[in-house]
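Re: the request from the purification team.
They wanted to know what the chain is likely to look like in 3D before they choose a buffer screen. I agreed to run a prediction and write the result into the notebook, where they can find it.
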Amino acid sequence: MAGKGSTPFAGHTHSKMPLNLSPATTQTPIAEIGSDAPFSEAPRGPSTLAATSVRWNERILSWIFIACAFVSVLTTFGIIYVLVTQSWPFFQSVSLATFLGGTKWAPLIDQTYGVLPLVCGTLLVTAGAAVFALPLGLLSAIYLSEYASPRARSILKPVLEILAGIPSIVYGYFALVVITPLLQKVLPGIEVFNALSASIAVAIMTLPLVSSLCEDALHVVPGALREGAYALGATKMEVSTQVVVPAALSGIGAAFLLAISRAIGETMIVALAAGATPTMTASPLKSIQTMTGYIAQTAMGDVEHGTTGYQTIYAVGVLLFVMTVALNLFSISLVKKYRQKYD
């Protein structure tokens, strides 16, 4: 019996009692204390596996994007390589001065290789298309951005973009069957194949491009500029023409140059409606031939492969490529020079 005031364990030696932990309270040891073993990894749950899967998906997508970019760059260099290698034999037999300075183009008949008539016809059609497409495209963009209601904009913009999906050969036959007869009623001296009808058809084709790009450039102008102009008492017309358009000038200029590049490279419309007469003329009422029209005509298979006449296709293609690249570089420099940055 224990004495009064004694504890239940009085007089007994304390012994080590085994610690009995139930499985519910047992935890996985990370590492032994004092040991050099590294910390063991935590068990992988569903969230860890999902994160690993996401990382692999991102890597795969990045590889796909890099491959697509590489293919684009490789294609561009491939085009340059083909143009240079195929046109090099032509420039070995025909001097560059004769090619760029000659005023007569008849490589299959008289073996004359002056490309200026083709350049003149190309610029004539491009200038005519720009006269029609650029003002109409800009005005339609101003209406869609500043005046049209959201409902009208949602209807008119898709209708404009439908024009961009029509094949160019349809525009060519439209110019030949519809536009030319209408012009002949107004201008009796106009020829069946002429530069004016081709210019109008090219303008209709490039109009959605000009309108869409200009509307995008106008739409990103900050609303604070408009509100400030309205606060000063400006009308909607003044805000649109004197505030919004100057603020979006770089984007508008880039849209114009891109549309001009598109018009220079158009093939089927000019091949069908403009004719096949390479002449040095400034009259849009006469038949002309453009650079792309000549390439399409000569590539039909009537010219023997490997001859100088066949190599003119690549020589004209090199000149056309240089012209479009120069326009694109000018467009990039224009955007960088006049780009407006807003906070």
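For the purification team: The beta strands are 105-106, 112-113.
Please add any questions underneath this entry.
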